[in-house]
Amino acid sequence: MKKINRVIASVPFRIIAGIGLPMLVLIGAWILYTFGNPLICVFHKLTGLYCPGCGSGRASAALLHLDFAAAFQYNFLYVLLLPFIVYYLLKQYIILVFRKDLLPMFSIDGLAAKIVLAVILVFWILRNIPVFPFSLLAP
DSSP characters for the chain? Predict the structure, then answer.
């Protein structure tokens, strides 16, 4: 474990991560923008049910095309949570590359985490009910 920490703390690793991670994000965004979402949901393929993340790839592609209505239609919960996800990943990137904690972190106590989990679970259940208005939640 100490060896892994030394590698992560090394300057060459931080330079490679500092350049490589944004390149991967840009390549992924280009693929989504150009070709759409190439991935399938294994959970949906095996069960026929929608998982909480179903439609998030198509929603990401729609957001890259600035089609917010389509993005919300594919997976509105993902679109609502995306700014928090991006903020958290950006914070971790800055810590990894620059070894400084520059961004403040929003705090989530145990109750808030349970509420977020409950919202995700309720969203998961409701989007699989094939009756209007719940069918609107399906991607």
Answer: -HHHHHHHHSHHHHHHHHHHHHHHHHHHHHHHHHH------HHHHHHSPPPTTTTHHHHHHHHHTT-HHHHHHHHHHHHHHHHHHHHHHHHHHHHHHHS---S------HHHHHHHHHHHHHHHHHTT--STTGGGG--
Q: Quote the CA–CA distance of 47 and 7 in Å, as a whole number.
A: 41
How far apart are alpha carbons 123 and 117 in whole angstroms? Answer: 10
Tell me the CB-side half-sphere exposure of residue 102, using CA atoms within 13 A: 12
Which residue in the block uniquely carries the two structure tokens 């994000």?
25
**Is residue 39 predicted with pLDDT exceeding 60?**
yes
Q: Is the dihedral of CA 95, 99, 104, 110 positive or negative?
A: positive
- Determine the angle formed by the axes of helices 56-64 and 11-35, rounding to 10 degrees: 90
18: nearest Cα among 99, 77, 118: 99
Q: What is the pLDDT of residues 49-103, one digit of tens each?
A: 999 999 999 999 999 999 999 999 999 999 999 999 999 899 989 988 888 888 8
Q: What is the pLDDT of residue 63?
A: 95
